[in-house]
Amino acid sequence: MNGSEHILAAFHRHNISTVFGYPGGCIMPLYDALVDDVGVEHVLCRHEQACALAAEGYARASGKLGVCIATSGPGATNLITGVANAYMDSIPLLVITGQVPSALIGTDAFQETDILGMTLGIVKHSYLIDDADSLPEILEDAIAMAQSGRPGPVWIDIPKDMLLADVHTEAPAPIEPAQPECPDISPALAMLREAKRPLLYSGGGVSLAKAEDSFRAFADSSGLPGVVTLKGIGNAGRHNLNDLGMLGMHGSRAANRAVDECDLLLVVGARMDDRATGKLDGFAPNARTIHIDADAAEFNKLRPADIALRGDLNAILTAFTDALANQGLVIGDWQKQCRTWHTTGGFRAADNEEPLAPITGPAFVRQLSGIAGDDAIIACDVGQHQMWIAQYYQFNHPRQHLTSGGLGTMGFGLPAAIGAQFTDRNRTVINVTGDGSFMMNAQELATIRRYKLPLKLIVLDNQCLGMVRQQQELFYNNRESHINLDDNPDFVAMARAFDIPALHIERTDQIRRGIETILAYKGPMLLHVAISREENVWPIVKAGASNKDMIDEPRKTSSRKEQVA
Amino acid sequence: MTPSSEIASQSYTLNCRMSQEAAALERLCRVVRVRGFRISKMAMESAGDSLDVLLTLEGSRPVAMLQSQLEKLHTVTGVELMSGAVARSRTA
């Protein structure tokens, strides 16, 4: 077998059945091998960035490894944003690129880039193949590494001659990732029992460790009030009464208040991101910290941990649950206080009762959440709509919420939704996007058409870059700078050009019918939702300020009726 | 612990043992830079399949944070903070 055939053999060994890619000069030997391989479905996206983001959406929705493929030079550089996105959110990704033939490396050959050098900061690890016989072992290492410990992207750059060369070695046995021993939780348990106002602060690490069940068992048995990061949304499920929702810059007043008042922060799979903590000096100022994570480098990075527990989250959370089985925590007053805060300071969606009134983002998302069902996957982009989804959509599981957390990549949503749809063609997958983000990867409408994906697309169109406009309004003396998008194309006509039927709505009384129509339609459909340009995301904490200094929406006098999410 | 609490730059010496792989040294230097340290002196010696790199660094962030980030590199097999490494201190 040659190098290309060994790559496909590795895919088969690891049950990799779907890959996302775009062919070109130096990767052509691999594409030639794909012609004869019926066991691997290759999804042709229309831009390499979308290949990486679709692979990521596939990985996020399924918990499996995502795979993307591109050629050298521009193909490889186009992958970079998607791979950086995966790195920031710790998504397991195998990236395979063609490189110019070995003899031409370093000669500024056609479509040569030093992609290994360019991407050192956005990969868990990377390889440049200089010996075809090393390829089988490197493939095994890369596949194992991408998924083990704290997951992340691993990049293999393969010169064209290595793809064509006969390989004289066999793949080693698949690597079983070593599980770290469960650390002694006794000191942490004692600290937890001593606390009067303990708070559970969980993030994306829970689902990355596939520890959702262990987390819920612990959350239920401990009764701890909890806050979540953007990536932790859904950790506690839809019906946990102690879940106060998202904390941070656009978190709820209840969540941020609980963090401010707690005396113990039990951090599970979260990395104290600045969007979550606000000004660090003001974050949980009276709390001791127990930090549980798979990655030791997260301990003490931004906030000192009184106790750090490194290991498999499943094992650690189960140990806590077992330990609490005989004697629970005595935190009834604190639970009651947090629930009161949730009632008075949860996210408040203003439902406009006037049927002809313009649609607001929060009101739309609340209705979508009620109609789309417990199982739908929502892939959103970046901006105001992303925060409205985080605030008002009631997720039952973190893998239903595909969002670009760390990198904040506009254009993430559509390709991520495509990737998610490939995990299950029959599942409801909805891309909720804004007019700015939608245009960043709109070429992928062609991918939807090609593969006849039943994706639902919802464009919340405020004719501007809403989040930037909002910050310019609030923090830059309302000096609007290059946020105007009122020359957007006709999105309905644009969708139809790709054989995707589309609807336009703009009034409150059209929301339900619009959502129900696109969900009932058997194929892909786009719902274009005109919303007010002036709507802001509330509450908001100014970047660099303390979370307790959050700014609420100014009082409005209208017929709006507030509802707590 | 935080960047905002940085007040003084200190000098440290780290002994890093690495495997000989493509870009191993680049990866090491990149992490040092991104995590807020400056290399003031570097000595490298090849020993079979390994590289021993002695780094003298300056920075105002906790060196333990850098150490744990370097240990994450798959080319790094060990990082040792040399005892008595705080050579001098100055106000940033």
Automatic annotation (TrEMBL), chain A:
Pfam family, one: TPP_enzyme_C
EC number: 2.2.1.6
Cofactor note: Binds 1 thiamine pyrophosphate per subunit.
Sequence ranges assigned to domain Thiamine pyrophosphate enzyme TPP-binding in this UniProt record: 381-529
Molecular function GO labels: acetolactate synthase activity; flavin adenine dinucleotide binding; magnesium ion binding; thiamine pyrophosphate binding
Catalytic activity, reaction form: 2 pyruvate + H(+) = (2S)-2-acetolactate + CO2
Pathway membership: Amino-acid biosynthesis; L-isoleucine biosynthesis; L-isoleucine from 2-oxobutanoate: step 1/4; Amino-acid biosynthesis; L-valine biosynthesis; L-valine from pyruvate: step 1/4
Keywords per UniProt: Amino-acid biosynthesis, Branched-chain amino acid biosynthesis, FAD, Flavoprotein, Magnesium, Metal-binding, Thiamine pyrophosphate, Transferase
Keyword Acetylation included in the entry's annotation: no
InterPro entries: Acetolactate_synth_lsu, AHAS_TPP, DHS-like_NAD/FAD-binding_dom, THDP-binding, Thiamin_PyroP_enz_cen_dom, Thiamin_PyroP_enz_TPP-bd_dom, TPP_enz, TPP_enzyme_TPP-bd
Gene3D superfamilies assigned to the protein according to its UniProt record, in alphabetical order: 3.40.50.970, TPP-binding domain
Domain spans labelled Thiamine pyrophosphate enzyme central: 186-319
Enzymatic class: transferase
GO BP annotations listed: isoleucine biosynthetic process; L-valine biosynthetic process
Cellular component annotations (GO), alphabetically ordered: acetolactate synthase complex
UniProt cross-references to PANTHER family, sorted A to Z: ACETOLACTATE SYNTHASE, THIAMINE PYROPHOSPHATE ENZYMES
Similarity annotation: Belongs to the TPP enzyme family.
Protein name per UniProt: Acetolactate synthase
The organism of origin for this protein: Marinobacter fuscus
UniProtKB/TrEMBL annotation, chain B:
Protein name per its UniProtKB record: Acetolactate synthase
Superkingdom as given in the UniProt entry: Bacteria
SUPFAM superfamilies assigned: ACT-like (SSF55021)
Organism listed in the record: Marinobacter fuscus
Pfam families found in the cross-reference section: ACT_5 (PF13710)
InterPro entries listed in its UniProt record: ACT-like_dom_sf
